[in-house]
Design the sequence.
């Protein structure tokens, strides 16, 4: 049952504990998660929680790429699997009322944790029989606990070892680690080497290195079939040794090579962006359009942002008949990117818009590209 009036995070986690405790040994459990670092970490904690409770893991674990938010294939696969219990983490499904309604009709127990978004329409979109939790429901400013934090909070109730390095990794994946003082102190205390600055142009410290590797399994995965990051992290958790992730040994070897391939792709695309990006003179805007099957737009946008601290960075990528945009802003710019995006023009209809004030994304039909650019230029003129 969806409950909308939680007092605090603890109450929300209690609610999840009650749901999970009811999962039976004989039930068919399917777990579906977003494939990025936060999503993988949360899925791992959830899978281990299921194991603690009933002695075996979920029967199927599926990962979802950012580009498949409409979940066409996943929906068909879930229908085929016909689970008794469906667990979903780190996916914004309030936007998919038909999918939710369908699951509510055919699956007895559906649990969803998300933290991306919450708005008035979700109250109608989410069927009452689904157990839907989202830290944004609490309505506490700046509290939007990433999915990894949910997994960590849940797992703590069932296990003595809560693998703080794993929680730190998931939170760092969503750029939220700095906000968790208690966990940060624990890491400083037990795993100081994770936060020690290293002389390496690729990463500031080992924690960041781990995020790059885990995300490589997600970003550099055009066919989307292999849940390699999950498998590698699961083994690292079993060994309780995070160095396994970048060890180039056993299962980790495949993640290692993905990381190398991804790195060289990023270099190539980034070099192209440096030469070909359109930099506006009269407004603080940089626009670059690329085509890549990998989910690395955010990485490229972040690097461009560091090189152009006085610009708003737009990276566009076409996929089938849709264009996705990643938006960042340089240090010297301070605008709310969501407001900027939403105020683009009353008649412009996005397929979706999301993110945070300093890092956002959008999706719209490819046929609207020229119109969008015109509107964007005008919008920045008046907004800045
Ligand atoms: Mn997340």
Sequence:
């Amino acid at each position: 049952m969806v409950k909308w009036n939680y007092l605090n995070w603890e109450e929300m986690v209690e609610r999840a504990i009650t749901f999970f405790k009811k999962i039976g040994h004989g039930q068919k459990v399917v777990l579906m998660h977003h494939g990025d670092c936060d999503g993988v970490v949360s899925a791992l904690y959830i899978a281990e929680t299921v194991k603690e409770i009933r002695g075996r893991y979920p029967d199927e674990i599926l990962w979802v790429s950012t580009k498949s938010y409409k979940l066409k294939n996943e929906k068909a696969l879930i229908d085929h699997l016909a689970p008794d219990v469906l667990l979903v983490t780190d996916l914004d499904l309030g936007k998919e009322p038909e999918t939710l309604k369908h699951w509510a009709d055919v699956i007895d127990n559906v649990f969803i944790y998300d933290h991306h978004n919450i708005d008035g329409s979700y109250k109608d979109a989410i069927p009452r029989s689904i157990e839907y939790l989202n830290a944004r429901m609490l309505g506490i400013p700046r509290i939007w606990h990433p999915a990894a934090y949910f997994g960590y909070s849940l797992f703590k109730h069932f296990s003595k070892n809560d693998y703080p390095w794993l929680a730190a990794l998931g939170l760092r994946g969503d750029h939220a680690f700095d906000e968790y003082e208690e966990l940060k102190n624990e890491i400083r205390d037990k795993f100081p080497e994770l936060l020690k600055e290293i002389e390496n142009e690729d990463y500031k410290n080992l924690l960041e290195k781990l995020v790059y590797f885990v995300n490589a399994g997600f970003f550099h995965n055009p066919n989307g079939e292999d849940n390699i990051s999950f498998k590698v992290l699961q083994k690292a958790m079993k060994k309780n040794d995070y160095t396994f992730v970048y060890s180039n040994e056993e299962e980790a070897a495949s993640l290692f090579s993905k990381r190398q391939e991804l790195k060289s792709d990023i270099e190539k695309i980034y070099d192209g962006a440096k030469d070909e990006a359109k930099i506006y003179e009269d407004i603080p805007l940089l626009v670059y359009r690329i085509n890549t099957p990998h989910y690395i737009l955010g990485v490229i946008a972040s690097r461009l942002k560091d090189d152009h601290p006085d610009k708003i960075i737009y990276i566009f990528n076409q996929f089938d008949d849709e264009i996705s945009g990643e938006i960042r802003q340089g240090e010297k710019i301070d605008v709310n990117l969501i407001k900027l995006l939403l105020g683009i023009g009353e008649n412009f209809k996005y397929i979706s818009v999301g993110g945070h004030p300093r890092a956002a994304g959008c999706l719209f039909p490819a046929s609207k590209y020229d119109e969008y650019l015109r509107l964007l230029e005008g919008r920045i003129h008046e907004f800045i």
Observations:
- The chain has a mean pLDDT of 91.
- The longest helix spans residues 252-276.
- The pocket of manganese (II) ion is lined by residues 38-39, 90, 146-147, 174 (CB under 6 Å).
